Amino acid sequence: MDKDRVAGSAKNWAGKVEGAAGEAVGDADSEARGRAREAEGTVQNFFGQAEDAVRDATNAAVNYARGDGAEAVAKFVNQNPIGALLSAAAVGFFAALLLMRPASPRRRRRLYYD
To answer: Which residues contact 47 (CB under 8 A, 6 or more apart)?
Structure first.
């Protein structure tokens, strides 16, 4: 569990308590601060949940790449070496296209006749 989830839950709970206390006493300022803290805690909790989801997805992708993915690539290369070579060449070609600097525009010479 992410620390943002714990802190967000604590802020959410404290905001609910402060908002309810402000409502019970009739203090609108305290109630508004409590509701704001509650919203901040909810957002922080959701952010922590998103971090956990990204971390889990990253771990799953890394585990797949180390295990099943690597085996699948090795199997493809063993079964079809020419296709693997052409695939690698195509990836290299398109990577080079993406990394190339655009050509500078050529200047046209203007010829002046007397």
So the answer is: 4, 8
| Burial call 73-82: b when 16+ CB within 10 Å, e when fewer | eeeeeeeeee
CA distance 13 to 9: 6
Compute the distance between CA of residue 50 and CA of residue 95 in angstroms, rounded to an integer: 31
Residue 87 backbone phi and psi in degrees, to 5: -65, -45
pLDDT in tens, the chain (114 residues): 678 888 888 888 888 898 888 888 888 888 888 889 899 988 988 888 898 899 889 988 888 878 787 888 888 889 989 988 999 999 999 999 888 877 666 666 666 665
Contact between residue 60 and residue 68 where contact means Cβ atoms under 8 Å apart: no
CA distances from 25 to 22, 36, 38, 79, 92 (A): 5, 18, 18, 76, 69
